[in-house]
Design a protein that fits this description.
The strands form eight sheets. The protein has a five-stranded antiparallel β-sheet with strand order 1-26-25-22-21. It has a four-stranded antiparallel β-sheet with strand order 2-29-28-27. The protein has one domain (6-361): Neuraminidase, CATH 2.120.10.30. By secondary structure, the chain is mainly beta. It is built from two helices and 29 strands. The chain has helices at residues 6-19, 311-314; strands at residues 47-49, 65-69, 74-80, 85-90, 95-100, 106-110, 116-121, 127-131, 137-141, 147-151, 153-154, 157-158, 165-167, 173-176, 200-203, 209-213, 219-224, 230-235, 243-249, 256-264, 274-276, 282-286, 297-299, 302-304, 316-320, 326-331, 338-342, 348-353, 356-361. It is globular and about 55 Å long. Its cofactor is Zn(2+). Keywords: Hydrolase, Metal-binding, Zinc. One of its GO terms (molecular function) is hydrolase activity.
């Protein structure tokens, strides 16, 4: 376990950021940070068991920790075991951040980042990034720091806004290409899409780009099953709810078939990024999807349209079996956009949640 308490980690981050010239007005978003206190009880009541089978993954004396805060919208976590650090995006602030597991320090890894969103580590230990807006491309950061452009167009037209990304064992790169990064000015620059669809792409090791899924509206998170025989993809604009679809991966490692809905966020959950553990369970970022109730309620003399799903009940991580059965909910004080497994034993769950990054040791290990 790290030596810094969450409170000290936050203080170190604010101090380090100020020393680097990142005052609140410079994008630290310090006014959006808040004092977080971990639960003092074991087992942590934030880990809510929805099915007794999940108990084997819970560590009795592990609690949710806040390891970083002060971001505007934290996303795209990727863990690098060689250096013992986590990289993650702070999209509106146009930067990639670094959390050092040994010291607890948080620093700016890259700024500007071209509004980087999803990040991952390839099989050679290099950072692969979805540049979400402006450049709208997939890049790889070489060991010497050089940035190599892997893809920025398809059939002669610019990509939409690369979002989330995974690397398969054959070194192919799979990524989603929804519209979020060009829909407005918050996460980049508004731009007209050039692609006819919001695709899921496969980039082969020799650089050939193929649209492997073309019929999902704004695909978001994606991940493979441990044996890579299934591909899971979030449909952010699913009807009537956000969903996760599974596809059978053909023997060629490329073709997909048998599209099946595995998870339906019927509780108004805002499915986003997710990861799969070695047992095939899906650990999903969760929170309100922002949908409004059909009728207003009175609040302080005003007619207000509330959310259909309460953020305080939804924010966190929802865990499902491979068959889509809910197993657990890890409650967080902020909406979780994405997550990854890390730590020296690959059993520390890192959760990028709105303004902060949280961590929890579990008895599960990431599939990759």
């Amino acid at each position: 376990m790290q030596n810094d308490t969450p409170r000290n980690t936050r203080r170190q981050f604010l101090k380090a950021a100020a020393g680097a010239g990142l005052a609140t007005s410079g994008g630290l978003a310090g006014a959006q940070a808040f004092e977080y206190k971990p639960n003092q009880r074991y087992p942590d009541p934030a880990v809510q068991i929805l099915d007794p089978s999940f108990t084997k993954y819970r560590i009795y004396s592990s609690t949710v920790e806040q390891v970083a805060t002060g971001m505007r919208w934290a996303e795209g976590p990727a863990y690098f075991p060689e250096g013992g650090y986590l990289l993650f995006s702070d999209i509106p602030n146009n930067r990639i951040m670094k959390y050092d597991e040994k010291t607890g320090n948080v620093s700016v890894f890259r700024s500007p980042s071209n509004y980087a969103n999803g990040n991952t580590r390839d099989r050679q230990g290099r950072l692969v990034t979805c540049e979400h807006s402006s450049t709208r491309r997939i890049t790889r950061t070489e060991k010497n720091g050089k940035v190599t452009v892997l893809a920025d167009s398809f059939e002669g037209k610019r990509l939409n806004a690369p979002n989330d990304i995974v690397v398969k064992s054959d070194d192919s790169i799979w990524f989603t290409d929804p519209l979020f990064g060009i829909n407005g000015e918050w996460e980049g620059f508004r731009a007209k899409p050039e692609q006819a669809n919001t695709n899921v792409f496969r980039l082969s090791p020799d650089g050939q780009l193929t649209a492997v899924i073309t019929d999902i509206v704004n695909p978001n998170g994606l991940a493979f099953s441990p044996d890579e025989k299934k591909l899971y993809v979030v449909e952010w604009k699913g009807t009537p709810n956000r969903s996760i679809w599974s596809y059978d991966v053909g023997a060629d490692g490329v073709s997909l078939s048998n599209k099946t809905k595995v998870i339906d966020a019927a509780d108004q959950g805002g499915l986003d990024g997710f990861r799969v553990d070695r047992d095939g369970n899906l650990w999903c970022g969760w929170g309100s999807n922002g949908a409004l109730a059909s009728e207003p309620v009175e609040v302080n003399g005003r007619k207000v349209f509330p959310l259909k799903g309460k953020s305080e009940d939804l924010d966190g991580v929802r865990v499902f079996s491979a068959a889509g059965k809910p197993l657990a909910h890890i409650s967080l004080p902020e909406r979780c956009a994405n997550l990854t497994f890390g730590g020296p034993k690959n059993n520390r769950l890192y959760m990028t949640a709105s303004h902060s990054v949280y961590a929890l040791y579990v008895e599960a290990h990431g599939a990759t």
